[in-house]
Design brief:
Number of domains of chain B: 1
Largest sheet of chain A: 6 strands, antiparallel, barrel
Strand content of chain A: 25-35%
Number of domains of chain A: 2
Number of helices of chain B: 7
CATH architecture of the largest domain in chain A: Beta Barrel
CATH topology of the largest domain in chain A: Thrombin, subunit H
Oligomer: heterodimer
Number of helices of chain A: 4
Order of helices and strands of chain B: HHHHHHH
Order of helices and strands of chain A: HHHHEEEEEEEEEEEE
Chain lengths: 265, 171
């Protein structure tokens, strides 16, 4: 009985199917697959051109013209093309953003990984973004993420194999050790304020700072390098009843409109 | 190894794959003739070669498909298993009616498998709607396959001896 099963064609082919699937996911079949792609490509291109010509032939000659209907279709096409134009403009804008970020980070000699924002996390707190790079790309929890011109956006709080969650700088409870650019003796804690803005807290009373000074990361946080721009100082609050000074930080980032980010590694 | 039959097997596999995937489906996605093609491979080749043909076609389709690798291999294997079971036990006479019924069953199985894959995809992988047809598209898919079966039946009957009684008994 068992011999009969083993000799059965369906048993053998079924086994082969399983082995092929297994080998594919182990990447053992990839050389063979590459050869198939390479061999079939010219045939596919030729057939694709043929299909394109056949399509044109059918559309131009065999189908009777219905002018009002064609007018309606062309009007719809114009609308679609206008939408595509908007899409292309967005694409160009995104490319310019990427170039600007790359230039900044290259000048700073920082290793970075460019990622695209996929959306916001499903939590009520909308200050968590989902990006399209994850553990398999080397993204780790705690890494800093920069945006326009290298300014800090936030840090990674959770990773999956192909995605990661970015906690924005302005979120309540998100804190970064910071210093004044060019003067590391003036230090404080940059933190999110009501999920909308940033403040620099725990500044010593004797620290000398003024509106417009630049605030950068201090390097005291693990995985976050020193010198990443957080923003410039706004109003400074020096309350006599308080042990420390506080200051508003104005970030160059538009936190509502983030498309491309760089994970600093 | 490279006798006439084997070369015909290989050439038919590559040609049908290219014509179906890059030409016919490019013209209209509803003209998916794979169920009919599988029925005729079972008629033309012996069981081993027909199964190997289905395996080859499934592998090629999986390489270019957006479905998870192995989907088409599994579809074709299951459809061949079903077709073989039916041709051996119920629809044994290779008449036009038998072929048309086989075709309907193969098409329905193919759509059912696609439907299940889509459901799994949506549930576990969060990928948007993929290949499912509407009612009208399904009707066109079934009709197109039935018409191809009819044409295939006439051609096979006219130019080969595959469907003749003696040939069936030998097989």
């Amino acid at each position: 009985m068992s011999r009969k099963i083993i000799k059965n064609e369906f048993f053998i082919i079924g086994l082969i199917v399983l082995v092929i699937i297994f080998l594919h996911y182990l990447k053992i079949l990839s050389p063979l697959e590459k050869v198939i792609y390479w061999t079939l490509a010219p045939l596919q291109i030729t057939t694709e051109n043929l299909a394109h010509s056949a399509n044109n032939l059918i559309n131009n000659n065999l189908i009777k013209h219905n002018w009002p209907e064609e007018n309606r279709i062309l009007t719809a096409k114009v609308e679609t093309l206008e939408n595509q134009l908007v899409g292309l403009k967005n694409f160009i804008e995104e490319n310019q953003l990427i170039e600007a970020q790359k230039q900044y980070l290259s000048e700073r000699k920082l290793n970075y990984l460019t990622a695209r924002v996929l959306g916001r996390a499903e939590t009520n707190n909308a200050n968590i973004l989902i990006i399209n790079k994850g553990e398999s790309d080397g993204v780790k929890v705690g890494q800093a993420v920069a945006g326009v011109n290298g300014a800090l956006l936030g840090k990674i709080i959770k990773t999956e194999s192909k995605i990661a969650h970015l906690w924005l700088l302005i979120a309540n409870g998100n804190r970064f050790n910071s210093t004044l650019a060019g003067n590391s003796e003036v230090a404080g804690l940059a933190e999110g304020n009501h999920n909308t803005s940033l403040i620099l807290d725990y500044i010593l009373k004797n620290a000398e700072l003024k509106t417009g000074d630049l605030i950068v990361t201090s390097g005291a946080d693990a995985l976050i390098p020193a010198g990443i721009l957080i923003g410039s100082l706004g109003d400074i609050i020096d309350d006599k009843n308080n042990l420390f000074k506080q200051a508003e930080i104005i970030s160059p980032v538009d936190f509502k409109n983030i498309k491309i980010v760089n994970v600093i590694q | 190894m490279f006798n006439k039959k084997n070369i015909f097997w290989l050439v038919s596999l590559i040609l049908i794959f290219i014509i179906e995937q890059a030409l016919i489906l490019r013209l209209d996605a509803r003209l998916n003739f794979w169920p009919t093609v599988l029925i005729f491979t079972l008629l033309i080749f012996d069981l081993k070669k027909a199964l190997a043909w289905a395996l080859g076609a499934g592998f090629l389709l999986d390489l270019y498909s957006f479905l998870p690798f192995g989907s088409y291999l599994a579809y074709f294997f299951l459809i061949m298993l079903l077709l073989y079971f039916l041709t051996k036990n119920f629809l044994t006479n290779r008449s036009l009616v038998s072929l048309l019924i086989l075709n309907l069953i193969a098409c329905a199985s193919f759509l059912a498998l696609l439907f299940i894959t889509e459901k799994i995809y949506l549930k576990f992988l969060l990928i948007e709607k993929i290949a499912l047809y509407g009612w009208q598209d399904m009707l066109i898919f079934f009709l197109a396959n039935l018409i191809l079966t009819l044409i295939g039946f006439i051609i096979t009957l006219k130019f080969t001896k595959i469907l003749e009684v003696g040939s069936i008994q030998k097989r």
